[in-house]
């Protein structure tokens, strides 16, 4: 299965359904199933700012108990679009989604759908870009 490593707290926000757009500096033509891997780094400072702190707390998380080094969710990468100057000026897409991403002009917004947190996260070493994890049906 194709995987993407994302730093914490953003990986957990995706797993919880609180973040449905991942922003990247590069576009992708890939569409399909995607495993979300929580990298080893946790941005503890941002976890203590709003709205991160309250959203994580609502689900029982703090900067100190976020999972790392595991595949923690699956999703479907449904689309990718470039952030236009107009969108960047209008703080698109708005709300927490805007705060949870980097929507600067020239970045790319990857639309994630149907995210499902795994009941038992799978330890894995992440990589840059897309990478493959040999999926065994019983693990998901």
Fold and architecture overview:
It comes from Paenibacillus phytohabitans. InterPro entries: ASCH_domain, PUA-like_sf. This is ASCH domain-containing protein. With 140 residues, the chain is an alpha+beta fold. It is built from 5 helices and 6 strands, in the order βαββααβααββ. The protein has one domain (2-81, 109-133): Archaeosine Trna-guanine Transglycosylase, Chain: A, domain 4 (Roll), CATH 2.30.130.30. The protein has helices spanning 10-15, 44-47, 52-58, 85-89, 95-99; strands spanning 2-8, 21-24, 32-42, 70-82, 108-123, 130-132. Strands 2-5-4-3-1-6 form a 6-stranded mixed beta sheet. The longest helix is centred in the middle third of the chain and has 7 residues, at 52-58.
Question: What's the helix and strand layout?
Answer:
Layout: E1 2-8, H1 10-15, E2 21-24, E3 32-42, H2 44-47, H3 52-58, E4 70-82, H4 85-89, H5 95-99, E5 108-123, E6 130-132
Parallel strand pairs: 1-3
Antiparallel strand pairs: 1-6, 2-5, 3-4, 4-5
Order of helices and strands: EHEEHHEHHEE
Q: Which range best describes the helical content: under 10%, 10-25%, 25-40%, 40-55%, 55-70% or over 70%?
A: 10-25%
What is the helix tally? 5
- Gap from first CA to last CA: 11 Å
Mean pLDDT: 93
The number of distinct structural domains comes to 1
Organism: Paenibacillus phytohabitans
Pfam family, one: ASCH
Protein name: ASCH domain-containing protein
Domain ASCH: 4-50
